[in-house]
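User: Sequence recovery, please. Input:
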């Protein structure tokens, strides 16, 4: 079965199995004025009652005054946790969505009513057995409730006060059903709408990977421990302790952080001196994680930052983290250095490498023109005056313009830097992230272009070249042997070959059916004529039956072609 056939099977199976949920999705879409989208994309054909579902509802009455992005946000909130998370992740993708959609999706609210205590209690019993052996007490009233889970205070047997993060009961089934529907939609859009500025299947696959981590608190626990271990002596930041004896895939036990969430700094009446200090700690921690360590907290918004009672700044909710490898760091340094030196070749090299862009897939001349226009803004601007977040935003805008997917690590880095910049502007309007980041950016550039680093890279490359030279005779020998034995093979990946193969097979099958129908009609006509000469009614009956069978087969061919076109 070809790729196209597999996609149809995936779509058919998933939408049949989740027919009720898919019907609900279409009704919500109609409610917020997206009926035409389903007709245009023919997504209603994935559901047996799709036409009926789209005709129900008032078609967006009452929301006409809202923008398309705002209506989509409301629809996502109504559809629940999976779609809320999808919107929140898309709000970090300026390479996929335009700025007005990004801004709207950043408003998505994940606060929902808490699950009843009896359900949470049963969930905890299922994870730990007898709770009296593990806890002195567990607060039945949640500290907070979000779309994926909720948090409760608890006291361990040893008297340590902790917080338990617990996944909502049954959330796995809801998300799995929604993901099957989203995957079916993505395959359908990829097959029938190849002009999209992004790959819908790749987006859904990336989203599925992110959700997989969200559904596993062990992942968040490991991230939290790694962040805390990165702290240096004298650092004024903190990450909560993880109590692994009370942590499972569905429950995360953390040190209870007592203090003021930065989201409520006004109510706490923090002084200007306190706010300036907190902003410096937060910016230093994020910059060090992103530009020096290469492993960073990707969502440092005010709700995830606490001023502890001893004055330290604590980062919580470490489930979303990003990694930047040495190669990416080197490309980032090359990008910033090239902008500072107005070196179009270096900027172009970094742009193509960071975006993992194939020159065969893009208009190289147009990219170089766009990069030059951007660089003109920084002509004669010193390195310490370059706004790195602006450079990175321009980078993602360039990728989106040329329909190139931005690597997720770069997206998360931009999110982390812009989020902490927003925290700084809120708490301390005079905070200058560009100036504060100056030593980090200079250190990044110098580290990548210093003599020791260049020497190290040369030594590494020298080892690679030496190994290549050593293996060259053996490789040539193997090549000539295979060529001499006629065992040399070439493999080619031709874009769209699966669809072409599927079309050719269908055409061959239709031609065979047509020839069979023509032969049956001819044979039936001969039998009918033979009846007149021989006087045998049996031959007439056989001829008539042949005509009927030919007619039915012809109808089947027409019906199959109609379904295929739809």
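Assistant: Recovered sequence (566 residues):
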């Amino acid at each position: 079965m070809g790729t196209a056939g597999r996609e149809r099977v995936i779509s058919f199976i998933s939408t049949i199995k989740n027919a009720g949920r898919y019907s609900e999705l279409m009704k919500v879409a109609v409610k917020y004025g997206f009926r035409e989208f389903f007709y245009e994309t023919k997504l209603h054909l994935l559901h047996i009652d799709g036409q009926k579902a789209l005709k129900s509802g008032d078609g967006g009455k009452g929301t006409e005054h809202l923008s398309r992005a705002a209506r989509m946000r409301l629809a996502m909130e109504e559809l629940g946790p999976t779609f809320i998370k999808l919107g929140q992740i898309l709000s970090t993708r300026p390479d996929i969505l335009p700025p007005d959609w990004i801004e709207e999706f950043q408003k998505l609210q994940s606060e929902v009513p808490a699950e009843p205590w009896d359900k949470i209690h049963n969930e905890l019993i299922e994870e730990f057995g007898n709770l009296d052996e593990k806890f002195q007490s567990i607060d039945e009233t949640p500290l907070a409730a979000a779309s994926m889970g909720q948090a409760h205070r608890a006291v361990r047997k040893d008297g340590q006060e902790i917080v338990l993060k617990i996944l909502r009961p049954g959330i796995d089934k809801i998300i799995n059903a929604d993901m099957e529907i989203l995957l079916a939609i993505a395959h359908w859009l990829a097959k029938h709408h190849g002009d999209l500025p992004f790959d819908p299947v790749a987006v859904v696959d990336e989203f599925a990977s992110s959700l997989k981590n969200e559904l596993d608190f062990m992942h968040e626990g490991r991230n939290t421990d790694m962040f805390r271990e990165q702290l240096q002596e004298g650092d004024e930041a903190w990450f909560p302790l993880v109590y692994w004896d009370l942590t499972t895939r569905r429950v995360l036990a953390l040190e209870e952080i007592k203090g003021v969430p930065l989201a409520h700094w006004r109510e706490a009446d923090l002084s200007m001196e306190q706010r300036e200090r907190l902003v410096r700690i937060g910016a230093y921690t994020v910059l060090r994680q992103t530009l020096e360590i290469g492993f960073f907290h990707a969502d440092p918004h005010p709700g995830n930052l606490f001023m502890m009672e001893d004055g330290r700044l604590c980062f919580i909710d470490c489930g979303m983290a990003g990694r930047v490898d040495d190669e990416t760091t080197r490309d980032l340094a090359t990008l910033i250095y090239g902008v500072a030196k107005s070196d179009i070749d270096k900027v172009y090299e970094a742009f193509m490498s960071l975006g993992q862009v194939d020159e065969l897939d893009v208009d190289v001349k147009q990219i170089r023109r766009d990069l030059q226009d951007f660089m003109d803004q920084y002509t004669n601007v010193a390195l310490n005056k370059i706004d790195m977040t602006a450079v990175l935003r321009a980078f993602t805008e360039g990728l989106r313009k040329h329909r190139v997917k931005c690597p997720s690590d770069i997206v998360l880095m931009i999110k982390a830097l812009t989020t902490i910049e927003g925290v700084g502007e809120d708490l301390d309007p005079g905070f200058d992230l560009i100036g504060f980041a100056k030593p980090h950016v200079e250190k990044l550039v110098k580290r990548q272009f210093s003599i020791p680093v260049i020497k190290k890279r040369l030594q590494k490359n020298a080892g690679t070249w030496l190994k290549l030279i050593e293996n060259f005779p053996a490789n040539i020998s193997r090549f000539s042997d295979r060529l001499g034995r006629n065992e040399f093979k070439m493999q080619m990946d031709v874009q769209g070959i699966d669809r072409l193969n599927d079309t050719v097979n269908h055409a061959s099958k239709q031609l065979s059916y047509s020839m069979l129908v023509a032969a049956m009609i001819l044979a039936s006509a001969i039998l009918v004529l033979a009846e007149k000469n021989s006087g045998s009614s049996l031959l007439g009956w056989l001829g008539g039956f042949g005509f009927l069978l030919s007619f039915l087969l012809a109808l089947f061919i027409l019906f199959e072609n109609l379904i295929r076109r739809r």
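The chain has five domains: 3-110+177-208, 116-168+216-256, 260-449, 454-489, 500-565.
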